[in-house]
Structure formats: structure tokens, C-alpha cells
């Protein structure tokens, strides 16, 4: 008996020793006290890729051929530069971004929402390059979305990313199916669009197969488009840019969310939207299984190739004919890690992509989007009647109306995956109300911005 | 045993149903893998023109040779080391039993039920500070540590069951501890050691969380981690994903079918010792 | 498999407190002392690896859990805030509840099926068909869980095999995207887990049943016992140990689930399949709330121990 007790006491003692040894192994200071060095860029002369062999470490998004095509062309023009490209889906990039930028810094990376990445010093400040390359002579609105101040609020402050073209979203439609329901031209008002949606449903055509599954809530596309129809794009932008006091839960946005909920109730979305992923949406649209698709001009080139002459594009119509229009429009942002090895060459590549004639042509033809760069930059010829022509025209209309908004999913790093997506999925399932959706997103936003 | 004919028939039917449920999903992804890349096949449906080249495509896209090489290197780093350390410690705790052996044993038991997610966060920073992030060491070293509770307890149980009389007789004959260990205990422990090696092999091969968190490059990961990367990249192309998954599974299945008796008995032994 | 514990039959805790050999003489004692040193030296490498890569991170987790830290800048003291968040935020509490619901599918269902099936198969356990089945049913155990997740995501999708079978059976009305529906996503993830675990449980329990002395059954039949009474009075007690192993292993795999859900649903739709493991991953590496992630880790480890220890007691009883 006593032996057992003794053994047990000794057991406790030894486990105590092992435990305290482990404690001693762990540092007792608060974690993270050795912050990363603040790498400030000093430039001497014009930035170039030099003459020596350079391998740019790049991290791109799967399914978008544009950056790869640009990289290929760049290597053709500058044979000393090659690319080591890693690809992931956007949701995966989003999850990996902080870790990757900090601990395996790529020279060139497709960026998700970037305010925290920038304010934590993980991204390279591109202002010295902007100055050296003369980017400041471009229309200021092009770069605005990629400026982040030290609080993580966007729209102002140093430049932390560059676009490989800027994209715009709206509504694609299948011309053949549209003809079947008597839609001969794009709707001019929201009520007309409602009418076509109903007509398609009644004709047994799936009106919309929108992606909304997994970690990607694609109903954010129609929702934000409706926000532009109901309200002012500037207010939405303020919210996205984290301007103090900004609120997504406004009467206009509530009306937009209720309109979207109405579409869900009317059965305008495919039954399985909550499990459709992006590629599935594309496949269904191209195969003529759905009439409309809320998506962006980055697919224009692809649609022109896969269904020549078969697809059209229009901007979400205003409530009254001739009313204010708006659209989500944002650069496809690429950044350079703060500690990237070949930052200078990467910056040179970004400048080249916006100014080289060949690169701009690739951006329009492969990417379907409008190149960055000077207002009078060269534009390639586009076939009339193609989707690409339609999206470029819509882009011009949006910039004339000053109706561009960033994406509501870009307000904070986590707002899309952790807030918009689950809440939109709940909205589809009838587990969330339009008011609850906005309230819940706003609450998450405040807790994330507050940090 | 008294067994009626009916019972036997019911038993067979049930076995067949269970086997079907197990195998059908594999058949389904095999058929799906033969469809046109980028398409969305409906259920099990033999394609009009089977795209056998999908396997070649997936083989290239996944860079199978490098993946296999990487997994093998990781296995070589983990399994021999872990088995050796566990065998030594198991002998120490199960046979020699110094004072405090019981307490050390309890400390190891603490780690037995540990979910890896519980320590993945600090482990990330620890691995980063060691400067081995994004290398195979980032998987190898922590895995050895994480396998210790199970492996040590397994080997300890093995040495504890070796009859005392054998050791005592050897001692009387003047055998040193080394002799005792090498000539008597190890030969008797071969089944336990090989079962342990098989289990550790399998768990290393299939390790996912450490791979996706600690190593960015799929070509430096385990097979499961590489499969995760393959899904992250080609997950939207169902036929290609199915082809790639099957390819990545093939080595595991081959190893399993070759050593199946060993595999099953390794896990059964675990329960016998319970 | 994500953790060794998740599939490993847990070796017993018994057999440790054996009596020592009779008191040794003086010379023997000196040899003993040297032997002790040797014993410690043998244990040391394993113990060091374990301490550095397991115990140290556990302690660090506990430390981080009291800080507000984004992994980059200097952390600030947060007291118990992180624990309050874990135990009060509906999303995080929901993740814990989901994990408990998964126990039903990952553990209770497979063990139930395995018991039922093993009892019926028992009589033909030695047949060639049974030997083949042992191999086939084990396949889900040896493939990575990620693969199981990928394979089943496809079977459970709108156009997948499950719906195809249902349609063939005339059940068009119930077909749906099983992983994309709030009501069915968690059970659908459960189906994947059950598919993985049933084979292991069946083979283990069947092995246990074949070890039961056949004369017990003959005696029972002579006494006029029906199959039901036979099951409860002979079979069930006879495989108690195997059941204990199955339940322990599968319960841990439910509470610590990650791989399957990471590939199949990413926690969605909404938060309906969010589990602690996935939430820790998101918090730590995506939202970069290291403190909250660490607090959640500590809570998860505590939960696993809190569930497994009583289970061990309950199922193993006081067998030595």
C-alpha cells in the first residue's frame, strides 16, 4: 500500500519536473516581440531586371490564364527572367496570404484583401517605384483602391499593390435562351430584369446558377449590384475602405438585400446554389443551362472563345430608367512581399504589364479586362458584337458615371470567408433574414476593424 | 457451433452489401476520371469516349514522381528514427523500470489523445524560429515527437509482456543488459516492431494538417498534403481531380494490398494489448 | 489519419504496477544503479523529442491563450478574454456542438453497424468471403482522410452517385446537394466519417467475437436462449474490450476532425459544419487571432480528455 502511494508521489514529482522543463523551454516574454524589419525601398537609377538570370517567385490564382500568359510574354522579351509559379484557388490564397508573405515571401503574388497585410508591414511600399515609373501620372482612381494608410484604411496612403488590368462585374446572359423568353435587349430597369427572371423560371429555364458553395459566397455579386441600384456607390466604398463610422446596414442596402431575398424566394436561383462552385457555374452557363450569370469581365475572353456570339453582357439596371448605375470594379491586385528577393524586377514587370503594347493586348484578349496605365494607353481592336466589346463599353460607361465600387468582400481580410459567405448561404437556406444578414456582417466588420 | 443455413446466407448478403458500399465510391471516381476534363459528369456513367489521357495529364500536373520522392524521404526521416527511439525507451520503461518509470509513462500517456490541431499554432512559430519552415524537416521532426506517446507506450507494453523468467535466466548466465536487449528482447519483439513501423508509415504518409500548415510547396509534402494541394489547385476540374486522387492513392493501396495481413494484424494487436 | 490516437487502438494503461523483484543484494544494487542510469539514457531521446515538439507547444498554447496577438507585432495581455470568446461566441460554441454531433456519426453509427453486422457474420468469419471482406473493408482506413473527403464530396454532390441511386429508387424528392444544404451538411460529413470508421470497427469486433468460446453459445442454445438473449448475455460482454477501443478511437476522430471537413465543406454552408479543428486553423492562420486560436486549442484538448477518460473508465471497467 505504502509502496503504491510512494510510487504515485514520485510519479507526480517527475511529471512536475517534466512539465516545468517544458515551461522553461517556452519563452516567457509575450510572443512576437521581435518584429520584422521594416524594409524600406531605396532606389538608385531606373528599376530594371538587370542582365543576370532572375527567377521570379510567383503565386497566382488557378483558373485565370492572364498572369501566366503575361509571364510567358515577359520571358520572351526578357529571356534572363523566368517565373517559378505556384497556383491555388483564391480561397486558398486568402487563407495562406499572411503566412506566405511573412515566411516564404513571393516576389509577385495575387493578393486577397490587403489592408491588414499592408498595415502589418508584409507588403512592399511601391511608392518609390510609382514615382520612378511615373505611375502617378495615370488617372488617380486606378491606384486609389490599392493605397492603404497605417490604420489599414484604404483609399489613401502608400501604394501596396498594382493591378494586372482592372475588372468590372455585371450580368452575362445567354442570347439564345434570352430570345426564347422574348428578351431582345438588356433590361433598362430592375423591374424589367425581375420580369425576365420570372419569365425564364416560368419557361422552365434556370434563371441563375450562381456559385455560392464552399468558402465562396457568390451571391455577393448580385447583392452588391443591387446595392448600387438602390443606393449610392460612395457609401459602399467608404465601408469597404474602412472609413470611420461606415455602416453597411443602411436602409438602401437593406432594400437591396430584401430584393435579393425576394429572388431567392421566387426560385430564380438554382436549387443547389449553396453547393455550386465557380467552375460549375461557368460550366452550366456555357452549356446553356442557365440564362443569367453575375460575374466579371475577366471571363469575357473565355466566353467569346467558348460560345462565340452566344453571350451578352449588361450592367445591373437602375430602379428607374436612366437612373444612376454602379458596378463592382477593381484591379486584379498583385503585390510584392516586403522581404521579396527580386522586388525591383517584380516592380518592373508590373510596370511593363501596364505599358507594353503586347502586354496590354494580352490583358484585353486573354483577361477580358481593361489594362491599367495612362488614360491614352494603346488599346487593341476588339471584334464588334463580342462580350469583350460589351464589357469594355460598360466599363467606359461606369467610369463616366463614376459608379465604380470595390468589392464588398474586400473590406477586411476575413469578412468574405467568415461573414458574407456563411450569411449569404444562410439567406439562401432561409436561416437568415436580409436585416439579420447586414447586422451580422456589420458586427463582424466592427470586431475585425477594431483590432 | 450450431449454425443455420439462413444465418449463413444473411451473413454473406451483409458482407457483400458492406463491400459494395466500400468499393462503389472508388468505382465512381474511376469512371468520373475518364470524362472530358472540365465537364460535370452525372453519377456513374461510362463516357462515350473515355479520356484515358486524364491519368497522364494528372500524373504530369501533380508531378507524381517528385511527390512520391518527397513522401519517401519523409518516411525515411520519420519511421526508422521513431521506431528506434520508441524501442529504446520502451525497453527502458517496460523492462528496466528505473525509479520514476511509472511517472514518465504517465507523462507519455498525456500525449496519447492529443489532437494535432491543439498544438499546430505554437508549432508553426516554433518551426519558423528553428528556420525549417517549408522544408521536409518541418514535418519530420514534429512527427517523431508526436508519435512518441503511442510508439513508446506500444513498445513498453511489448517489453512488459516478455516473460521475466527469460531475462532472469539470462542474467544468471551473466548476460549484460546489452546482450539481454539485443539477443533476447529484440528477437522476441520483431512482430511488435514491424507492426509499429507499419502504423507509423501509414500515419506519416497520410499526415495532412502538418503538411498544409508547415510546408507551402506540395513537392516537399506528404502524399496527403500533396493531395490537398492538388485539390486546392485543380479542385474545380472534377475529372482531373478524380484522376489525380486515384493516382495519389495508388501507392498506398499497393502497399496495403501487399502487406494487408500485417496491416490488419497490426491494428488487431493494438486491441489485444488493451 | 490526423492523429495517431485517432486510429490507433489505445494500448491499455494496465500492467504498469507489477511487483518488483525481491530485494537485491549489494552488488546487484550497484549494478542496478548503473542500470538506472542506462534506463534513463534510453528513455531520454524519446522524451526529449516529445518534450520539445509536444509538451513545449502545449505550454506555448497555454501562454498564447492569454494574449491578444496577430503573430507579427508584439502581443498584448488579454487575461481570460480569449476563453470568454471561445465559450460565448455563438460561432465558436457552435463548432464545439457540431463536434459532439459528429460523435453520433463517427462513433455510434459505425460501432452500431459493426456490432450488428459482426453478429450476423460471426458464423462465417472463417470463410473466404469474410477474408476478402476484411481486406476490402479496411481500405477506407488506409487511404488519407483527405482522399475520403474528396471522393465523397463528389458522391454527395447534386449530380453524384448518392442522388443517382436515390433517383433510381424513385426518391427524386429527397435528392439534393447533400453537403450544400443546412439540414444535411453535417450528417453528410458524418456519412463520410462513418464510411471510414465502420470497416475498422467491424474487423476489430469480429476478431473479438471469434475469440469467444463456442461452447458458451452451444450451452446457451441448449438452455433455449434466443439470438437476442444470446447477443446480450454472451456476445456483447465478450467484445466489450474491442468496443472500448472502437469507441475511444472514433470519438477522438470526431472531436478532432479536420481533414474531411477541410476538403468537403470548409465548414459551410453557413457555419453548419464548422468544427474546433477547422476553426483553430482559420483563427490562427487566416484571421490571425493567435490568442483566440490558442485558447480554443486548450479547450479542445481539455474536451478530448474530459470525454475520453470517463469513457475509458466506463467501457473498460476495472480490468487490469
TrEMBL record, chain A:
UniProt cross-references to PANTHER family, sorted A to Z: ARABINOSE-BINDING PROTEIN-RELATED, DIACETYLCHITOBIOSE BINDING PROTEIN DASA
Q: Which InterPro entries match?
A: Bact_solute-bd_prot1, TAT_signal
Provide the coiled-coil residue spans. none
Q: What Gene3D superfamilies does the database record attribute to this sequence? A: Periplasmic binding protein-like II
Protein known as: Carbohydrate ABC transporter substrate-binding protein (CUT1 family)
Q: Signal peptide span per the entry?
A: 1-26
Q: Where are the transmembrane segments?
A: none
Q: Which UniProt keywords apply?
A: Signal
Q: Which organism is it from?
A: Glycomyces artemisiae
Automatic annotation (TrEMBL), chain B:
Segments crossing the lipid bilayer: 12-34, 67-91, 103-125, 137-159, 180-205, 238-259
Can you supply one Gene Ontology CC term for this chain's record?
plasma membrane
> Ranges for the ABC transmembrane type-1 domain?
68-259
How this chain sits in the membrane, per its record, is:
Multi-pass membrane protein
Localization, per the record, is:
Cell membrane
| InterPro entries (UniProt xref) | MetI-like, MetI-like_sf
Keyword Transmembrane helix assigned? yes
Give the UniProt record's GO annotations in the biological process aspect: transmembrane transport
Tell me the Pfam families matching this sequence: BPD_transp_1
| Superkingdom in the source lineage | Bacteria
The protein's UniProt keywords, in alphabetical order, are: Cell membrane, Membrane, Transmembrane, Transmembrane helix, Transport
User: What family classification does the UniProt entry report for this protein?
Assistant: Belongs to the binding-protein-dependent transport system permease family.
The protein's name: Carbohydrate ABC transporter membrane protein 2 (CUT1 family)
Q: Which organism is it from?
A: Glycomyces artemisiae
Automatic annotation (TrEMBL), chain C:
PANTHER family noted in UniProt: ABC TRANSPORTER PERMEASE PROTEIN, INNER MEMBRANE ABC TRANSPORTER PERMEASE PROTEIN YCJO
User: Highest taxon of the source?
Assistant: Bacteria
Question: What family classification does the UniProt entry report for this protein?
Answer: Belongs to the binding-protein-dependent transport system permease family.
Q: What is its main location?
A: membrane
Locate the region Disordered: 1-28
The residue stretches assigned to a coiled coil in this entry are none
- One Pfam family hit: BPD_transp_1
Residue span(s) of domain ABC transmembrane type-1: 96-311
Q: Signal peptide location in the record?
A: none
| Name the record gives this protein | Carbohydrate ABC transporter membrane protein 1 (CUT1 family)
Q: What residue intervals traverse the membrane?
A: 37-59, 102-121, 133-154, 185-207, 243-264, 290-311
List where in the cell it is found: Cell membrane
- Which keywords does this Swiss-Prot/TrEMBL entry list? Cell membrane, Membrane, Transmembrane, Transmembrane helix, Transport
A cellular component term, taken from the record's GO annotations: plasma membrane
Q: Which GO terms describe its biological process?
A: transmembrane transport
Which PROSITE patterns does the annotation name? Answer: ABC_TM1 (PS50928)
* InterPro entries in the record: ABC_transporter_permease, MetI-like, MetI-like_sf
Topology class, membrane = Multi-pass membrane protein
Amino acid at each position: 500500500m505504502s509502496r503504491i502511494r510512494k510510487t504515485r508521489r514520485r510519479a507526480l514529482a517527475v511529471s512536475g519536473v517534466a512539465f516545468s522543463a517544458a515551461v522553461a523551454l517556452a519563452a516567457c516574454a509575450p510572443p512576437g516581440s521581435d518584429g520584422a524589419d521594416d524594409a524600406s525601398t531605396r532606389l538608385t537609377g531606373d528599376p530594371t531586371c538587370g542582365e543576370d538570370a532572375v527567377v521570379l517567385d510567383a503565386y497566382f490564382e488557378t483558373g485565370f490564364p492572364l498572369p501566366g500568359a503575361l509571364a510567358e510574354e515577359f520571358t520572351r522579351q526578357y529571356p534572363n527572367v523566368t517565373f517559378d509559379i505556384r497556383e491555388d484557388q483564391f480561397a486558398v490564397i486568402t487563407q495562406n496570404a499572411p503566412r506566405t508573405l511573412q515566411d516564404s515571401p513571393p516576389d509577385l503574388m495575387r493578393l486577397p484583401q490587403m489592408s491588414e497585410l499592408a498595415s502589418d508591414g508584409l507588403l512592399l511600399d511601391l511608392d518609390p517605384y510609382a514615382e520612378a515609373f511615373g505611375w502617378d501620372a495615370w488617372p488617380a482612381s486606378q491606384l486609389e483602391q490599392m493605397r492603404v494608410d497605417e490604420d489599414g484604411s484604404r483609399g489613401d496612403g502608400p501604394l501596396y499593390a498594382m493591378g494586372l488590368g482592372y475588372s468590372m462585374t455585371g450580368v452575362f446572359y445567354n442570347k439564345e435562351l434570352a430570345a426564347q423568353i422574348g428578351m431582345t435587349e438588356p433590361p433598362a430597369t430592375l423591374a424589367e430584369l425581375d420580369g425576365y427572371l420570372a419569365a425564364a423560371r416560368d419557361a422552365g429555364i434556370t434563371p441563375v446558377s450562381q456559385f455560392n458553395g464552399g468558402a465562396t459566397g457568390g451571391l455577393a455579386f448580385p447583392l452588391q449590384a443591387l446595392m448600387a441600384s438602390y443606393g449610392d456607390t460612395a457609401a459602399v466604398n467608404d465601408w469597404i475602405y474602412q472609413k470611420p463610422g461606415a455602416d453597411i446596414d443602411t436602409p438602401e442596402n437593406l432594400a437591396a438585400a430584401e430584393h435579393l431575398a425576394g429572388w431567392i424566394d421566387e426560385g430564380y436561383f438554382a436549387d443547389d446554389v449553396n453547393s455550386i462552385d465557380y467552375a460549375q457555374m461557368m460550366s452550366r452557363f456555357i452549356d446553356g443551362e442557365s440564362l443569367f450569370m453575375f460575374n466579371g469581365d475577366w471571363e469575357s475572353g473565355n466566353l467569346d472563345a467558348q460560345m462565340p456570339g452566344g453571350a451578352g453582357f449588361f450592367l445591373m439596371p437602375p430602379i428607374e430608367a436612366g437612373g444612376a448605375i454602379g458596378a463592382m470594379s477593381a484591379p486584379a491586385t498583385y503585390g510584392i512581399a516586403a522581404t521579396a528577393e527580386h522586388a525591383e524586377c517584380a516592380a518592373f514587370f508590373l510596370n511593363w504589364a501596364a505599358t507594353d503594347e503586347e502586354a496590354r493586348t494580352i490583358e484585353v484578349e486573354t483577361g477580358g479586362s481593361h489594362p491599367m496605365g495612362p488614360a491614352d494607353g494603346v488599346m487593341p481592336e476588339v471584334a464588334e458584337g463580342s462580350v469583350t466589346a460589351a464589357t469594355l463599353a460598360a466599363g467606359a460607361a461606369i467610369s463616366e458615371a463614376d459608379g465604380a465600387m470595390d468589392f464588398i468582400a474586400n473590406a477586411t481580410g476575413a469578412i468574405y470567408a467568415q461573414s458574407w459567405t456563411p450569411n449569404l448561404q444562410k439567406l439562401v437556406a432561409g436561416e437568415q433574414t436580409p436585416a439579420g444578414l447586414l447586422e451580422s456582417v456589420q458586427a463582424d466588420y466592427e470586431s475585425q476593424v477594431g483590432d | 457451433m450450431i449454425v443455420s443455413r439462413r444465418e449463413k446466407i444473411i451473413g454473406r448478403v451483409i458482407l457483400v452489401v458492406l463491400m459494395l458500399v466500400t468499393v462503389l465510391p472508388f468505382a465512381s471516381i474511376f469512371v468520373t476520371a475518364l470524362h472530358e476534363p472540365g465537364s460535370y459528369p452525372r453519377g456513374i456513367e461510362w463516357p462515350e469516349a473515355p479520356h484515358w489521357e486524364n491519368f497522364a495529364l494528372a500524373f504530369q500536373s501533380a508531378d507524381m514522381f517528385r511527390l512520391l520522392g518527397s513522401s519517401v524521404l519523409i518516411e525515411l526521416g520519420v519511421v526508422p528514427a521513431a521506431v528506434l527511439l520508441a524501442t529504446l525507451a520502451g525497453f527502458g520503461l517496460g523492462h528496466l523500470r528505473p525509479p520514476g518509470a511509472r511517472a514518465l509513462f504517465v507523462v507519455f500517456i498525456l500525449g496519447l489523445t492529443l489532437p494535432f490541431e491543439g498544438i499546430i499554432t505554437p508549432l508553426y512559430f516554433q518551426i519558423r524560429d528553428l528556420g525549417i519552415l517549408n522544408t521536409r524537416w518541418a514535418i519530420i521532426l514534429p512527427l517523431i515527437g508526436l508519435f512518441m506517446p503511442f510508439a513508446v507506450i506500444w513498445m513498453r507494453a511489448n517489453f512488459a509482456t516478455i516473460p521475466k523468467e527469460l531475462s532472469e535466466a539470462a542474467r544468471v548466465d551473466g548476460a549484460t543488459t546489452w546482450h539481454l536487449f539485443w539477443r533476447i528482447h529484440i528477437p522476441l519483439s520483431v512482430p511488435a516492431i514491424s507492426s509499429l513501423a507499419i502504423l507509423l508509415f501509414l500515419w506519416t504518409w497520410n499526415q495532412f494538417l502538418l503538411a498544409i500548415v508547415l510546408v507551402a510547396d506540395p513537392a516537399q509534402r506528404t502524399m496527403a498534403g500533396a493531395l490537398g494541394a492538388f485539390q486546392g489547385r485543380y479542385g474545380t476540374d472534377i475529372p482531373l481531380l478524380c484522376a489525380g486522387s486515384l493516382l495519389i492513392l495508388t501507392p498506398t493501396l499497393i502497399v496495403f494490398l501487399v502487406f494487408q495481413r500485417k496491416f490488419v494484424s497490426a491494428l488487431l494487436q493494438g486491441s489485444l494489448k488493451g | 489519419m490526423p492523429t495517431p490516437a485517432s486510429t490507433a487502438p489505445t494500448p491499455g494503461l494496465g500492467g504498469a504496477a507489477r511487483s518488483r523483484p525481491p530485494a537485491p543484494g549489494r552488488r546487484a544494487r550497484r549494478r542496478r544503479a548503473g542500470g538506472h542510469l542506462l534506463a534513463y539514457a534510453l528513455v531520454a531521446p524519446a522524451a526529449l523529442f516529445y518534450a520539445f515538439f509536444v509538451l513545449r507547444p502545449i505550454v506555448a498554447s497555454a501562454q498564447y491563450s492569454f494574449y491578444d496577438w496577430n503573430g507579427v507585432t508584439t502581443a498584448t495581455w488579454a487575461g481570460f478574454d480569449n476563453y470568454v470568446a471561445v465559450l460565448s461566441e455563438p460561432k465558436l460554441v457552435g463548432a464545439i456542438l457540431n463536434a459532439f454531433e459528429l460523435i453520433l456519426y463517427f462513433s455510434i453509427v459505425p460501432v452500431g453497424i459493426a456490432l450488428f453486422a459482426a453478429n450476423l457474420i460471426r458464423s462465417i468469419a472463417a470463410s473466404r468471403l469474410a477474408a476478402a471482406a476484411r481486406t476490402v473493408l479496411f481500405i477506407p482506413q488506409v487511404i488519407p482522410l483527405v482522399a475520403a473527403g474528396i471522393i465523397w464530396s463528389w458522391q454527395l454532390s447534386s449530380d453524384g452517385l448518392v442522388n443517382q441511386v436515390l433517383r433510381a429508387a424513385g426518391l427524386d424528392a429527397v435528392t439534393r446537394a447533400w453537403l450544400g444544404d443546412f439540414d444535411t451538411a453535417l450528417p453528410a460529413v458524418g456519412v463520410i466519417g462513418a464510411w471510414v470508421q465502420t470497416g475498422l470497427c467491424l474487423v476489430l469486433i469480429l476478431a473479438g467475437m471469434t475469440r469467444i468460446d463456442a461452447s458458451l453459445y452451444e450451452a446457451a442454445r441448449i438452455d433455449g436462449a434466443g439470438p437476442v438473449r444470446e447477443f446480450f448475455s454472451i456476445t456483447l460482454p465478450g467484445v466489450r474490450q474491442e468496443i472500448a477501443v472502437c469507441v475511444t478511437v472514433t470519438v477522438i476522430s470526431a472531436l478532432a476532425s479536420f481533414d474531411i471537413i477541410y476538403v468537403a465543406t470548409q465548414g459551410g454552408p453557413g457555419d453548419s459544419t464548422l468544427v474546433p479543428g477547422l476553426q483553430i486553423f482559420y483563427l490562427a492562420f487566416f484571421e490571425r487571432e493567435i490568442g483566440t486560436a490558442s485558447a480554443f486549442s486548450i479547450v479542445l484538448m481539455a474536451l478530448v480528455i474530459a470525454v475520453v477518460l470517463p469513457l475509458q473508465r466506463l467501457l473498460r471497467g476495472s480490468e487490469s
